[in-house]
Design a protein that fits this description.
Order of helices and strands: HHHHHHHHHHHHHH
Shape: globular
Number of helices: 14
CATH architecture of the largest domain: Up-down Bundle
Structural class: mainly alpha
Radius of gyration: 21 Å
CATH superfamily of the largest domain: MFS general substrate transporter like domains
Largest sheet: none
Distance between the termini: 58 Å
Helix content: over 70%
CATH class of the largest domain: Mainly Alpha
Strand content: under 5%
Length: 402
């Protein structure tokens, strides 16, 4: 029986892997194809904003949906519709032309990716009740990271053999494989999920509750500010990396793919280190924030590809350590009964700074070049960290005086 359950679990994780693999291919394609088509760092940044903004805005709505609709149904819809959107985008490109279709299909797929992500979060504790949840999360994150590692590499290989519309079509096949794995898992392991609770009142009521928590829970605004600062640097790094590597540093698209893959590998190494080492929350937060600041400075000042790579790996790798810190802190600050809806709103606020960074690249890259925008946003991250640290010291002194 356990062997059967383990095999079924592998199918579920395989679905996560193929879904992430396809999603990463689309994320890789957009800034690279836009930069190669336009030769503009600014347009590459704007494309990144248009691609990522919808997926972050969708978090609160997708969180509410998971309370009202079967998460398994939402997961199936997410995967099937992403395949259909990719196919529709390729057909539209063949009919009308223009790189805008790639941005559009990636943006719509991003919203559906958010829906699938939230649905899986709700399902995991229910379908693996017999396992320790930390182990379940580790397996899920491993499948996710494997997709993240292999996505840019596979995209680069495919681009050598075929134009981007065919690569986008290939992602549709990967989404269908992901859905097939879920269907097979469902038939092998008849897991009964808790029925969605009938939520009283208007559907915006949970979002109102979440916003109230954000405004009034002690410490939560500082957590959001820190995460927003980190995501400014993550956003500007991702939005400019294609232009920096293939443009200013004059490397190939293959080198860009290797850089993306190395970043994903760095995250795996950092996660393994955290899993095997006992560190305090304060240490996790301080180390990750400081190292990411240093990495951002390196990417902005780098005179060559190798120094840029070092900075890129520090930013992307230690972002996972910061994620562990911020998620653990949220668990302590938010009441359990409000964790889901409040987390959805917080994740939206935290990540809106990523597309904002892309927008700032689009607006200012023509004046300052990519380097100037990177260094400016790294400076903003440093100011945010300093202000939060100063506020925290003031609150500690007040608490000691009381």
């Amino acid at each position: 029986m356990n062997d059967k359950r383990d095999a079924s679990g592998l199918l579920f994780y395989a679905s996560l892997f193929f879904s992430r693999l396809a999603d990463q291919i689309l994320l890789f394609l957009v800034p690279l194809v836009v930069f190669e088509t336009t030769g503009s760092v600014a347009w590459s940044g704007i494309a990144f904003t248009l691609e990522t903004l919808p997926r972050y805005l969708a978090f609160p709505v997708c969180g509410v949906l998971c309370d009202r609709v079967s998460p398994l149904k939402l997961l199936r819809i997410s995967q099937l519709y992403r395949a259909l959107v990719c196919i529709a985008g390729v057909i539209a490109f063949q009919w009308v032309g223009g790189v805008g279709w790639l941005i559009a299909l990636s943006a719509v797929c991003g919203v559906l990716t958010t829906q699938g992500l939230m649905a899986r979060e709700v399902m995991l504790p229910q379908i693996f009740r017999q396992h320790r949840f930390e182990k379940v999360l580790a397996h899920a994150q491993l499948a996710d990271q494997l997709g993240t590692v292999l996505g840019p590499l596979l995209a680069s290989l495919l681009l050598r053999w075929m134009p981007w519309p065919m690569v986008a079509g290939a992602t549709a096949v990967l989404f269908l494989i992901a859905d097939g794995a879920v269907t097979w898992w469902q038939r092998r392991d008849a897991v009964t999920l808790a029925p969605p609770e009938a939520a009283p009142g208007h559907w915006v009521e949970p979002i109102r509750t979440a916003l109230s928590q954000v405004l009034h829970l002690p410490g939560l605004k500082q957590v959001i500010a820190l995460a927003a600062g980190v995501n400014l640097v993550i956003g500007v790094t991702l939005a400019t990396s294609a232009a920096m590597v293939t443009g200013l540093l004059q490397r190939s698209a293959g080198d860009y793919a290797v850089l993306q893959t190395a970043g994903a590998i760095a995250t795996v190494i950092i996660l393994l280190f955290i899993a095997r080492t006992v560190l305090s929350l304060r240490t996790l937060g301080l180390v990750s924030y400081t190292v990411m600041l240093a990495g951002g400075l390196l990417t902005g000042l780098a005179p060559n590809f190798w120094i840029y790579t070092a900075g890129f790996l520090l930013v992307i790798g230690f972002d996972k350590m910061f994620n562990v810190y911020i998620r653990s802190l949220r668990q302590k600050l938010i009441p359990p009964k409000d964790l889901g809806k409040t987390t959805g709103v917080i994740v939206m606020f935290n990540n809106l700074s990523q597309p904002l960074a892309g927008m700032l690249v689009g607006v200012f890259a023509g004046v300052m070049e990519g380097r100037g925008v990177i260094l400016g946003l790294v400076g903003v991250m440093g100011v945010i960290g300093g202000v939060v640290a100063w506020v925290g010291r003031g609150e500690n002194r007040e608490g000691a005086g009381a």
